[in-house]
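Notes, p. 3: input format for complexes.
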Amino acid sequence: MAFNFEAFLSKVDPSQKYKYQSLTGGLVNLTVRATKLSPFVDGSIFPKHDTLILKYAPPFVAMIGEAAPFSQDRQLMEARALAQFTSPQGPLSDLGRPSSVSVPELLYHSPEEHVLVFQDLGPLLTLYEYLAAIPNETTFTSISAQEACPKIGSRIGEFFARLHSPNSLEQVSIWMSGDVQNPLGKDLVLQAAVMTIKDYLTRFNIPGVHSLSSRVLTDYQRDDLPMERCFALGDFTPGAVLLAVSDGDQPLGIIDWEFSGVGRGPNGDMPQFLASLHLLLLAASPHSPRQSAINLLIQGVCSAYRQHSSKWLPQPHLKLPTGLSVTQRDPEVPSESLQVFRSALILHGRELINNAVEREWPDSPQKESSVLIQEIVRKGAWYIERAGDDIEEMLDATNVEQLLQEDSRIMLRLFGIEN
Ligand SMILES: Nc1ncnc2c1ncn2[C@@H]1O[C@H](COP(=O)(O)OP(=O)(O)OP(=O)(O)O)[C@@H](O)[C@H]1O
Ligand SMILES: [Mg+2]
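Output follows (419 residues plus magnesium ion):
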């Protein structure tokens, strides 16, 4: 499908002529970069910008077509989020400053034509592309990636801890007069990422399909706890992180805010994002520079998120008394943080399974017979098993013992559980 961006922009900014470049990477919308041909000509309504990003939202998923209708209201959600990061009035316009993370500023929105114009963060890579460019052969080294990844991870972790803080939600709620909901995602995620699990577990012969898939459904459909309500990106994947190839201090931005709104953070955005990275970690060659870089990136994200969220997210204690016989709940620890942790395990598992089955694996046309995909699906199921049917079951001594053996300690580290 196509959209005439030139006809649109010549009406909005008639004093300027632009050239257009299609941007790949998105599935849902059509996105281009418009570059001014004569930036010194006066009269532009975007005087500070020589380049712009334009995004058109058709009434369906752009890559699929009319067979996949999708409300154009998704663009209102993205415009609303970008406006919050746009100075001087946007309540979150300083949020990314301490971690040097940018969110594109909103420059213009036409709800009638379903076009959004926003700040160009530059010709950057997505985090997927960045990681794919790190050598996956053990014979190579990549010192620069090893140095950059802890810093990149740390900046992402800090940004999201600040985004998910009660303070950010309060500021956004005031600014939006309380209407922070995003009505678009709920059913879509239910169909595309929750109801899928039963079938995927069955296809991979995972025991306990019924109980595992109903845990996923129940956790998704339950009402949010007051503690877990936060302003969330809503669909956090490595495709939402843009960055340059450099030493860790490079430009870094977060894009694609269509699913943003009040949602879940430590048990939403974070386990989802970390599941994509966990999958890439498992798929990387052992002892390769890529594997080590992804591992450092994950550690950076988790440690910084923990550090910057500790004020509002008490550490859940999986108390394992000496003798490993009885697990007692520490009465000091609010059970809400244990619930958030449990919910994070479920989401991390769910997203490992979805990503493993849905991703294109060029070497594995028969997914069910691929040892790697089987391993990732089993690992996903492991997280949902460890969550138990409730907190009591999760805190069972044998279960805690297994939980503490978590692969790469990703969820444990995110919640600051050190043992
Ligand atoms: N502000 C920006 N600065 C620079 N490049 C950008 C910017 N926003 C988007 N891009 C580029 O355009 C591509 C598509 O953008 P985006 O992922 O937001 O589109 P989308 O259609 O909403 O994606 P999805 O299908 O994942 O929802 C990105 O991968 C990136 O390369
Ligand atoms: Mg999008």
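The radius of gyration is 22 Å.
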